[in-house]
Amino acid sequence: MSALARRTGSVNLGQGFPDWNPPEPLLAAASHAISHGDHQYPPVRGLPELRRAVSADLALRCGIEVDPETEVVITAGATEGLTAAILALVGEGDEVVFPEPFYDAYPAAVTMAGGVPVTVPLTGPDYVLDEAGLAAAVSPRTRMILLNTPNNPTGRVLTRPELDAVARTAAAHDLIVLVDEVYEHLVYDGREHLSPAAVPGMRSRTLTVGSAAKTFSATGWKVGWVSGPAELVGAVARVKQYLSFATQGPLQTAVVAGLNLPASYFADLRGAMERRRDLLCAGLTAAGFAVTRPEGGYFVLADASGLGVTDAADYADWLARHGKVVAIPGGTYFTDARSGAHLLRFAFCKTDEALRTAVARLSGLRDIADAYRAPASRGRTP
């Protein structure tokens, strides 16, 4: 979608990366590490100082105590952490249950491990995880429940009742719970991010995946981590060794500086992102989309059916050419693309200027909706 944005001169609200630099203390720490000879392999499990910083952050935010020596491993981004955990713990024919819509790496990683993806379809616009639906998806072959909170693409933040339901299901069937929490600091409207590992009875069966990418606006740095029981983290580390072997040392040093930033940094980031969310949601609503404001994360999953959209992939291409705004078709996040054929995902992790430009362009969509429905206007971009 970024290539499409460049080719069409569109505002890129497709790929979820910020348009600004990481905080200056992180840049200074990375530069210092590079200029002072930090160029060789770091430990496979990650720099001890970063593992200690991750452990301290989990204790402060979530009340989760983990041993930085045995219960934290640093990975080349959260996606490697998730994939390494699945490859380590899921065998041939094992089922992995996760809510749908989902981040598209999940079924790929499960299939790569020889496992079987099993989804729990959630209904928009609320996308509430129902205990009965979750229990119905579990079978004797189920090995793992995979969660994402705050969620990509829906923006849902799982509540305590939903997490209690996961805990009961996991305990009843002796399941591992793998949790993707990369948007943990980006929770809005006064909500609290609740970590499943902090729910009573869940600590011993939960792996938590975090990342520097979203919290510090450094998606290209690819520094993430996995924490949890020593036995499970050790299995992840053994697989990670044969994926990337080690994660870039100077950037690990920089992330230590990030995790030690004052609380005001994280509060200011939430406030700025909440303002950007509201700007984009208002623009989408004015343009004729049905929008539920996301509770966290980077994205708005907008319903375009009111604009006559029944093929989101076709509409996303048309939108880039005629509206000069790029979004991702919602079918990407469903097992059957037809389930998301009326949905588009827009990113609001962009500068105010970029969002205002996009909103201005979207404001004309109602006037050209009839043009979209005209077959002659809908040839795909070469």
Automatic annotation (TrEMBL):
Keywords: Aminotransferase, Pyridoxal phosphate, Transferase
GO MF term (any one): transaminase activity
Pfam family, one: Aminotran_1_2
Residue ranges annotated for the Aminotransferase class I/classII large domain, each copy included: 11-362
Cofactor: pyridoxal 5'-phosphate
Taxonomy, superkingdom: Bacteria
Name of the featured protein: Aminotransferase class I/II-fold pyridoxal phosphate-dependent enzyme
Organism annotation: Streptantibioticus silvisoli
